[in-house]
Amino acid sequence: MTPRKSSWGRRPRFSSELRERETVKPLELYFDLVFVLGFTQCTVLMARQPTWDGIGRGMLVLAVLWWAWVCFAWLTSVIEPEEGTVRLVMFAAMGGLLVVALCVPEAFGDRALTFAIAYAVVRAAHIALFLTASRDDALLRRSVLGFAISSTIAVGLLIGASFVDGAVQAALWGVAILIDWGEPALFARSGWRLVPGHFAERHNLVIILALGESIVALGIAAEVDLTAGVTTAAVLGIALASALWWIYFDVVALVTAQRLSRAAEGPTRNALARDSYSYLHFPMVAGIVLGALGLEETLAHVDEPLDVQHAFALLGGTAIYLLAHVALRLRNARTVNVQRLALALVLFALIPVALEIPALATLAGVCVLLWAMIAYETAIYDDDRRARLRHGLDPDPGSPLGGERS
Fold it and tell me: In the chain, N or C: fewer CB atoms in 10 Å?
């Protein structure tokens, strides 16, 4: 019998056919756990600096972490993460990400340089794996090399930002993010590859991970007296997180994944994946993280009004989450979800009210509004269409887009 050849010395396989029917691998789920810590640390940063500057810094760090996650989402859509030495590189990247996450609360302070260097290690691991995987694909390799240049510039700016502070430091972070995020939009490349089902599932899971941050925020109840108000706030926090889950997973996640799968392979599909997932899922995650910040403050002071920053975090974060859904539908279906847009505007308008009433009442009001909208959308959305979606069928066989009505 011929001995089975070990996979450790084998070159990583890269093929869309290889993963066409595969789901997310255990190593990918394990890898994403480090990002849960990163998201939590962004909330810690903002909680320690409950000012507009602190919230802005938290969002900048979140944007940097998000793009690192996006890079690996594109990579692991088409490369076997558990094969051969790839898993070792993934473990090394996890080590770098752990250091990045630990540095987040002081990413603009004493640990700025450590954060930037550890982040450089993470991005270098991603580029190295993509270059290895693309050695037989000249078109992909050119795309990866172009992305490597923008990534290097962005990381260099973060390193440079660690030697300054204040507005200059924040500006350098902003420019780094613009360069990193802007490269795929400004230099459309047909060389990228992705497996639609796998790619959509990765983003579905990261929304769940972000919602997990809301659950973690409820853990503050363990550090305060479990009064009737705190217990009520904790239950309402679950109701809020559940509403956010429903708003995305009931229809939106299914329709978006279906559109990606049916898009023409190449530049059209790549642009759809970039816009719908890499770009527009970020404000969803940002809104959830902001909401977690508001939940923490609500649980800590249920009987007191929220200050303006935490009121913005709770109501504004939820509104940003809804606006991301509005933008997603506009990008894909060229229509506006009126009820979600209207509710987002209402939530922004209610921020001054939240400054005058107990935080518990504000949280209860947000939950009532969200669930009322969900009830309305459920009533107007045809059950047959929803059933077809859940079975992987076109909800509107006569429409090339499979129209989304909710």
Answer: N
Look at residue 133 in the predicted model and tell me its pLDDT. Answer: 77
Residues 6+ apart with CB under 8 A from 287: 317, 318, 319, 320, 321, 322, 324
Nearest-angstrom CA–CA distance, 238 and 224: 18
Q: Give ∠ CA 170-176-177 in degrees, rounded to 5.
A: 90
CA 348 → CA 5, 291, 323, 352, 384, distances in Å?
Answer: 60, 13, 11, 9, 35
Closest CA to 295 of 362, 250, 224: 362
* Cβ atoms of residues 305 and 357 within 8 Å: yes
3-state helix, strand, coil in the chain (%, to 5): 75, 0, 25
- How far apart (Å, rounded) are the C-alpha atoms in residues 237 and 299? 9
Name which of 196, 34, 174 is nearest 108 in CA terms: 174
Kindly give, in sequence order, each residue whose CB lies less than 8 Å from that of residue 288, ignoring residues fewer than 6 positions away: 207, 210, 211, 213, 214, 244, 317, 321
Which residues of the chain fall below pLDDT 50? 1-11, 13-18, 400-406
State the burial class of residue 250 (Cβ atoms within 10 Å of its Cβ: 0-12, 13-18, 19+).
Answer: middle
CATH topology of domain 195-393: I/LWEQ domain (1.20.1410)
Question: Per-domain residue ranges for the chain?
Answer: 20-193, 195-393
Asked whether the whole model's pTM tops 0.85, one would answer yes
Q: What is the pLDDT of residue 1?
A: 41
Tokens of 380: 């107007």
pLDDT for the residue numbered 123: 94
- Please count the residues of the chain: 406
In the chain the first and final C-alpha atoms are separated, in Å, by: 59
The pair of structure tokens assigned to 129 is: 């794996």
* DSSP per residue, 198-246: HHHHHHHHHHHHHHHHHHHHHGGGGGS---HHHHHHHHHHHHHHHHHHH
The three-point CA angle 389-74-84 to 5° equals: 115
CA distances for 66 relative to 83, 130, 239, 274, angstroms: 25, 18, 26, 13
Longest dimension (CA), the chain: 78
Whether the CB-CB separation of 274 and 184 falls below 8 Å is answered with: yes
